[in-house]
Design a protein that fits this description.
7 helices, globular, mainly alpha, 203 residues
Length: 203
């Protein structure tokens, strides 16, 4: 597992960037980024803030492993994926806040929780919202046949953003910003193309 230089030393910028990067990954899959964080903390490569040390314990690691596997499988079941999206919206906001606060070690409580709620919860909510709308459009346009591709993309993004956040937090935040920019533009184009043409006045 990749180490996270500078976090234990209280580097505020890196701590916040790490939290935002992991929170954005939570928007793709709720439990997988938490599992990656738990593994990193368990093997001593990630320093968790006070009150969140339990996330690096063996019971937490096992629990998150089971939850992550079940979540991954469920998103490949037609119909269940859309139901999970509805449930994942509030869950992503909460998990994004928690995961951000957990990795902001040696950060003043006011700064930590403000950044966790606004930046962490916001990043998780934004990525989750983009992928939820994308899956809904896929369900409408392909009768659900394209949802497996969406699920695979989300899985890869959740794992990729999680590992990138641990290895290079600032680059991870930049990647999140680029993804959100392109994602919003893509969805706007989809909605624009899906709008029916209004008939003009008769000649």
């Amino acid at each position: 597992m990749l180490s996270v230089p500078g976090i234990a030393g209280g580097d505020l910028a890196l701590s916040i960037a790490l939290g935002v990067g992991l929170a954005a990954a939570v928007g793709f899959r709720v439990f997988l980024p938490l599992l990656v964080m738990s593994i990193a903390a368990y093997f001593g490569h990630l320093h968790l803030s006070s009150g969140f040390a339990w996330l690096g314990s063996m019971p937490a690691l096992l629990m998150l492993t089971v939850a992550a596997v079940l979540e991954i499988i469920a998103y490949y079941i037609p119909g269940v994926d859309n139901v999970l999206d509805a449930l994942a919206a509030p869950a992503a906001l909460i998990a994004g806040t928690v995961v951000s606060a957990a990795v902001m070690a040696d950060v003043p409580p006011l700064v930590k929780w403000s950044a966790a709620v606004i930046a962490g919860g916001g990043a998780a909510g934004l990525t989750q919202g983009i992928t939820s709308v994308l899956r809904l459009k896929s369900t409408t346009l392909t009768a659900g046949l394209g949802n497996h591709a969406v699920a695979s993309g989300e899985l890869g993004a959740a794992l990729g953003f999680s590992l990138l956040a641990l290895a290079a937090p600032v680059i991870a935040v930049a990647a999140v910003a680029v993804f959100c920019w392109f994602g919003i533009r893509f969805l706007r184009r989809l909605f624009r193309n899906a709008q029916p043409l209004t008939p003009g006045p008769p000649p």
